[in-house]
């Protein structure tokens, strides 16, 4: 099954920001486009707005004047649904209400030809449930574009329970012909991106609710150590706290209130107070004119240790040994396996975040996971109340000697980056095991849809087969609510025999 021919008209029903963006994508790709909105005059206003965007593309050199003029000639506002009768694809982009979408698509079905592909751009509702109102649900598919649709490359092509393979394939190939990167997805709450991304927000909020770190510090650690483009607090301020919380709540409810997707009470209070982020002028941060951005907690300068002793294998943090030596600090390695720890001159130990707390051990400081310890510009440390000040100072001075800013946070298991990555890896493995998408499509979706520095499976391969399971298992012992219970898919992944090593 091939993509729609460029001569085939495309209808976009609903002319808000997403509807306009999708219409622009189809228009620039070369299709005639029909715009319809139930509110009189909205379609014509949307056509004017799209025309203005085409002008800006010409100014930026992305379109020629002739291409713009041809695109404008192909754009037609429709005053009635009957004017969409000749369309080969109709994309619904109405408000996120099941009854509204079902009624609209029922009306569309009675207008278009039998071979017209019907699609929804829903981000939170079930494609199966929307399509359940149709007489022929086999031709109905989800086409989930990301905002802004003209710029974001990802499109999730979602097959509902009744979607025909030919319909999904045609939608997939059409999205690709439009210059997008499509990924195939089964109809699951949140699809790929909004399902697997929940821990990125949830774990940051949990650390804040535990009073272990403030928003500015958590965001700095996620960016400067984890390699994420934005931190969870600043990103939700950009998205809109009400929008982000609504998606989280929808996924949680759709999974029958699965504790792994539990919304944040702190975010609920933020929404109730009207602090919705940038659009309201205040969210986690103050976005009013002239407001100063709070600085992350950064430790005072400390003296580096005279030497370190390595006990066991540092695993994902092994690169630190090279960096420590390059900084001129002597390193002595011992064969004894005491876990991923460095012994400091005062006798205290420095351990990679593993799901345990510093309070459980005598004089241990934990350090957080980094995407790349060489490139990271900030490292988080956590210590118990009775941790020796000398040990914390030596640990701080060590990372400062490597050129890193140091943020000391509260003694929470899994710290910040480590617990976030482990949960993302777990949800990704669980999704693939349940047939939601392939590993390749999950990695593509998370890189392109939310700009993760690595896909979950790329991250898992880098960290090692057992790393995420080990950390979450330890966290589950300390919080047996089920929130951190490793999935069966993660368990199988951790204990599967590598085929290169033979079978057991």
Structure in words:
By secondary structure, the protein is an alpha/beta fold. The protein has three domains: 10-187, NAD(P)-binding Rossmann-like Domain (Rossmann fold, 3-Layer(aba) Sandwich); 191-290 and 417-504, N-(1-d-carboxylethyl)-l-norvaline Dehydrogenase, domain 2; 308-409, Transcription Regulator spoIIAA. The protein is 41% helix and 13% strand. It contains 19 helices and 15 strands. The protein has helices spanning 17-29, 42-59, 65-74, 98-109, 127-131, 165-177, 193-196, 198-209, 215-224, 232-239, 241-254, 265-272, 319-326, 389-401, 417-433, 439-450, 456-463, 467-478, 488-495, and strands at residues 10-13, 33-36, 75-78, 89-92, 117-120, 140-145, 154-159, 181-186, 308-311, 331-334, 341-343, 349-352, 364-367, 378-383, 405-409. The strands form two sheets. The chain has an eight-stranded mixed beta sheet, sandwiched between helices. Strands 10-9-11-12-13-14-15 form a seven-stranded mixed beta sheet, sandwiched between helices. The longest helix has 18 residues, at 42-59. It is elongated. The two termini are 44 Å apart. The model has no long low-confidence stretch (mean pLDDT 95).
């Amino acid at each position: 099954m091939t993509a729609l021919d460029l001569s085939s008209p495309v209808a976009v029903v609903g002319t808000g920001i997403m509807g306009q963006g999708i219409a622009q994508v189809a228009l620039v790709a070369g299709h005639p486009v029909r715009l319809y909105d139930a509110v009189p005059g909205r379609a014509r206003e949307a056509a004017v707005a799209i025309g203005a965007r085409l002008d800006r593309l010409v100014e930026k050199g992305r379109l020629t004047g002739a291409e713009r003029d041809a695109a404008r000639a192909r754009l037609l506002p429709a005053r009635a649904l009957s004017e969409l009768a000749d369309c080969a694809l109709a994309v619904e982009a109405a408000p996120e209400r099941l009854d509204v979408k079902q009624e609209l698509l029922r009306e569309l079905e009675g207008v278009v030809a039998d071979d017209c592909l019907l699609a929804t751009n829903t981000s939170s509702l079930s494609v199966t449930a929307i399509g359940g109102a149709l007489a022929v649900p086999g031709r109905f598919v989800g086409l989930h574009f990301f905002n802004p649709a003209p710029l974001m490359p990802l499109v999730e092509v979602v097959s509902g329970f009744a979607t025909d393979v030919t319909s999904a394939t045609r939608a997939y190939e059409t999205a690709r012909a439009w210059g997008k990167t499509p990924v195939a997805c089964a109809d699951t709450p949140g699809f790929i991106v909004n399902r697997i991304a929940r821990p990125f927000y949830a774990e940051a909020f949990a650390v804040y609710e535990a009073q272990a770190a403030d928003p500015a510090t958590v965001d700095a650690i996620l960016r400067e150590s984890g390699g994420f483009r934005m931190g969870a607090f600043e990103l939700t301020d950009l998205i809109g706290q009400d929008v982000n919380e609504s998606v989280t709540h929808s996924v949680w409810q759709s999974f029958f209130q699965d504790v792994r997707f539990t919304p944040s009470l702190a975010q609920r209070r933020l929404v109730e107070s009207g602090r919705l982020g940038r659009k309201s002028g205040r969210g986690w941060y103050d976005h009013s004119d002239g407001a100063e951005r709070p600085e992350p907690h950064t430790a005072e300068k400390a003296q580096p240790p005279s030497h370190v002793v390595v006990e066991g294998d540092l695993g994902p943090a092994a690169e630190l040994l090279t960096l420590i030596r390059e900084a001129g600090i002597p390193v002595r390695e011992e064969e004894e396996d005491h876990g991923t720890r460095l012994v400091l001159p005062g006798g205290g130990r420095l351990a990679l975040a593993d799901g345990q707390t510093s309070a459980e051990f005598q004089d241990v400081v934990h350090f957080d996971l980094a995407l790349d310890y060489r490139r990271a510009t900030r490292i988080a440390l956590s210590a118990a109340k009775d941790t020796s000040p000398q040990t914390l100072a030596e640990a701080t001075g060590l990372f400062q000697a490597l050129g890193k800013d140091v943020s000391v946070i509260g003694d929470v298991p899994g710290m910040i980056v480590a617990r976030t990555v482990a949960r993302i890896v777990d949800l990704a493995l669980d999704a693939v095991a349940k047939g939601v998408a392939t590993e390749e499509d999950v990695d593509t979706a998370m890189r392109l849809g939310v700009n993760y520095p690595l896909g979950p499976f790329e991250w898992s391969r880098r960290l090692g087969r057992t790393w995420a399971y080990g950390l979450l298992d330890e966290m589950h012992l300390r919080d047996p609510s089920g929130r951190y219970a490793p999935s069966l898919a993660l368990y199988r992944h951790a204990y599967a025999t590598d085929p290169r090593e033979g079978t057991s």
